[in-house]
Amino acid sequence: MENLENSTDCKETVSPLNNSGSILNSTVSHHDGKAMGFVLVHAGAGYHSESKAKEYKHVCKRACQRAVDRLRAGGLALEAVTAALIELEDSPFTNAGTGSNLNLSGEIECDASIMDGKSLNYGAVGALSGIKNPVLVARRLLSETQKGKLSAGRIPPCFLVGKGAEQWAISHGIPACPTEKMTTKFSLSGYKRNKRKMELAEQVETKRKRQSCGHENDFGCLEPVGDIMVEGEENNSACLDTVGAVVVDRDGNVAAAVSSGGLAMKHPGRVGQAAHYGCGCWAENARDVSLYSTAVSTSGSGEHLIRTMLARECSTAMQAENAHQALLEAMQNKFISSPFLAGEDCVLGGVIVLRCCTCGEAQRSEDIQALLVEFLWSHTTESMCVGYMSAQDSKPRTHISRLPPGAVAGQSLAIEGGVCRLGTVSD
Would you say 377 and 350 are in contact if contact means Cβ atoms under 8 Å apart? Predict the structure, then answer.
């Protein structure tokens, strides 16, 4: 990637990558005044059917545009990443906010978190019902922590769950939204289908137990019922886990956010990685010129991501010289082959990552503001839908990344990304 650092714009390049069959592409940014910043979003790591590809790409485009609109209006990274997440949560095609998976009780319980790389403050909600945009509650929690202590010296919360989170949100001016208004025909039909599969599985298991305790009969051995989850079925992409975004603004501040409706048919009260610190998202500004600012958002099997704290692990890895190689090794060593997941034969997850630093000429001149942004995504799931855009681009770009032919989901990975130089000349 070093060959792009001294260019005046991002050049189109193609480089082969190891272990994936994927390629590394750069994006082109055009200089048009003082607009600066970059956003990378994802609509989940899981399975994206070809029939729904257009819808997933479209929502990623809208999320990118929302974030860039905020950046062009002078908004900071935290504002832009929130705007992107609201768009992703509002789409009925994503498993976040509206259209979220239903739990065992037929209710929607959402997780979300957000992190500001400048202040390192963090806000999160888990198993939250009755709020249309969980990211707004996470963002408000983050903002309230920045105000200092509460009355009588109490420390303000940064992470709330369940009914307490809902009550806190409403008391802070975030309107309630009934579950039925957030439920879609697609999520409801998936719930009914999965519930029937569960009931059938329980009937088979009960019959098996009775046979094992009594005499052998004419039924013989019963075949086990397949998984109740809808992963991999052509018309059932609702198994996708989280959505998320990472942003860098014109001042080089980074922010990250993530939101999820969680696993289909999860137990009420289950909190996934989207709410856990260091697991769902991470953002950290560079503390000196020798370091990179980094932002990460994850998706996939929440329990796998929690046990590996993948967001923070990937952020730490990004301080290495070669971003692509660092992410490749982090996904392989800290996730697929992690000792914390020993015994798991199918490790499912995905990440989007950006890192940035001030370009060399900007360090030498006060008249030039320039950022070198490297952005990557990687996944062990069958596919991952991403979108990206700089504040200097005319339109977003989207892509559904897929594992190469013959690769086994949960045991292989794909990795792609690019480099973009953002810069303006000050007045």
Answer: yes
In CATH terms, the superfamily for domain 38-99+240-360+368-422 is: (Glycosyl)asparaginase (3.60.20.30)
Task: For tokens 């390629």, name the residue.
Answer: 23
d(CA 62, CA 366): 35
Return the closest-CA partner of residue 311 out of 264, 263, 257: 257
Q: How long is the chain? A: 427
Distance CA 390, CA 110 (A): 29
Average pLDDT, the chain: 85
Active-site position among 242, 380, 381, 398: 242
Q: What is the pLDDT of residue 22?
A: 44
Q: Hey, where are the domains in the chain?
A: 38-99+240-360+368-422
User: Quick count: other Cβ atoms within 10 Å of Cβ 365?
Assistant: 12
* Whether pLDDT at 236 is above 90: no
Helix axes 323-331, 310-317, angle to 10 degrees: 150
Task: Classify residue 27 by its DSSP letter.
Answer: -
- The dihedral region occupied by 276, where left means phi > 0, alpha psi between -120 and 50, and beta the remainder, is beta
Tell me how far apart the alpha carbons of residues 260 and 348 are, in angstroms, rounded to a whole number. 15
With a cut of 60, say whether residue 217 has pLDDT above it. no
Q: Is 294 one of the annotated active-site residues of the chain?
A: no
- Would you list the DSSP string of 29-92? ----TT--EEEEEEEEEE---GGGHHHHHHHHHHHHHHHHHHHHTT--HHHHHHHHHHHHHH-T
Q: Which helix (H) or strand (E) holds 110?
A: strand 110-116
Where residue 2 falls among pLDDT bands split at 50, 70, 90? very low
For the entire predicted model, the pTM comes to 0.87
**Tokens matching residue 270:** 């289950």
